[in-house]
Amino acid sequence: MRIENMVKIDGSTANQLLEAFLNSNQTIAKIRNTTYVKMPVTDEVDLLYNQYQYNESPYPLDGKHNLEFAGVWNHATKTIYEPQYSLRSLLENGGEITTVSKEEIESLIEKEVFKRVENYVNENYEPLKQAVTDEMKENHYSIWRTEHIGQSFVEEWSTETMDYFLPDVSIKLEESSFMNYIVGGERRSQVIDEFEKQYHEKYGEKLGLYIMEFEAVNSKLQEIQNDPTNPMHKQKKIIKIMKDQDCQTVNLTINKNNTLFTFKTTASPLKYFGRYISTYHIQAQDRRKFEQLFGRHESYTLDDIAKITYGKRVLYQDEKLLPQTEISTLASIKAKGIRSNQNQTLEGRGHREDIER
Q1: Which superkingdom heads the taxonomic lineage of this protein's source (predicted)?
Q2: What is the mean pLDDT of residues 326-351?
């Protein structure tokens, strides 16, 4: 069968011609300057190839150009897997045909394998935990450090399930597995079974350790939740407040080394969890004063923050870090210079605070 080298024939678009060819029993068709060839793999699956001819030719194929892989067509599901550009450009205007990339298939398999692993862990929870030996505990490196637990609390990670504790599934399909998945049925199930087997071979002995991490982390998170004096509550409050604000810069007062200092900074670093906040975001003039007060390579933390203001609004203040005269004041403090008594402590009240910029 030959389809003339035209965009439309009897009102049909190139897209419609391609769909008609794929759904037909024909094995070769020419659409515009491209010839498409179907090579059967099974009764339902064909390999698709194409040959682009730069010059018009009355023949569907010629010996001057190579046949190139264009995709895999499944008649039953009306799906083209891993479509190449020549097919994608024809199908992008809609139609009944679905396209699925190799990466999308890999993602689907990863989700299915991970779901199976989760079910296995839930069904064998206690036996897996009991199988953990002291030697296994000693040799296990856990990524869950104190800062990660704090970040989990502040950013409200979903630690209530095992998702955060089990290693991810990472899959790269080889050609044979790719084709078996497309064929479907028992061959697809075997592909998923094989990747699940590989996961258990790699991580199976550690599943009990991941369960223990899950329990330990959630226990620690509950301790933080039940302790209102834990500094993580302050950090969580500041980050939430700042994420709710539509502001580029704020005035920030910190209490560092028992010294108050107010400066202008961009708001972005206050919206995310971190152990230290760099002075990079501080306005240049204020940054130099910060370095004179605290040292050139010093930073500050969310725990150091005494007050945040935006314009005349006080967004946040920590009364424990402010002198009584500063509490609930709508004007923020601006340091205009470093005076001779700048390093005196708050206890002596010798450090004079300047008026808001």
Answers
A1: Bacteria
A2: 42
Nearest to 231 by CA among 153, 316, 137, 127: 153
User: Do 291 and 278 meet the contact criterion of CB atoms below 8 Å apart?
Assistant: no
Query: Which strands form 79-81's sheet, in the order they lie side by side?
Result: 28-31, 34-40, 45-52, 68-74, 79-81, 98-100
Q: Is residue 317 assigned to a domain?
A: yes
pLDDT band at 303 (very low <50, low <70, confident <90, very high): very high
CB-count burial class (<10 Å; 0-12, 13-18, 19+) for 90:
buried
Contacts of 199 (CB under 8 A, 6+ apart): 113, 117, 169
Q: What domain range is 249 assigned to?
A: 232-348
Q: Are 169 and 131 members of one domain? A: yes
Q: Report whether 90 contacts 80 (CB < 8 A).
A: no
| Domain end residue (candidates: 51, 85, 100) | 100
Task: Give the residue among 342, 273, 265 at the shortest CA–CA distance from 309.
Answer: 265
- Round the average pLDDT of the chain to a whole number and report it: 85
Query: Counting beta carbons within 10 angstroms of the beta carbon of residue 112, is it exposed (0 to 12), middle (13 to 18) or buried (19 or more)?
Result: middle
Whether residues 261 and 317 share a domain: the answer is yes
Q: ∠ CA(17), CA(44), CA(169), 5° rounding?
A: 105
Distance of CA 321 to the CA centre of its chain: 36
Residue 259, token pair as written in the block: 């010294």
For tokens 């497309």, the residue is 182
Q: At what angle do helices 102-123 and 185-203 cross, to 10 degrees?
A: 60
Edge-to-edge strand list for the sheet holding 313-317: 259-266, 249-256, 305-310, 313-317
Q: How confident is the model over 317-336, as a mean pLDDT?
A: 63
Question: Could you read off the pLDDT of 82-124 as tens digits, one per residue?
Answer: 999 888 888 876 678 899 999 999 999 999 999 999 999 999 9
Could you give the number of structural domains in the chain?
3
Neighbours of 131 (CB within 10 A): 13
**3-class DSSP assignment, residue 35:** strand
Tokens representing residue 210 in the block: 């991941």
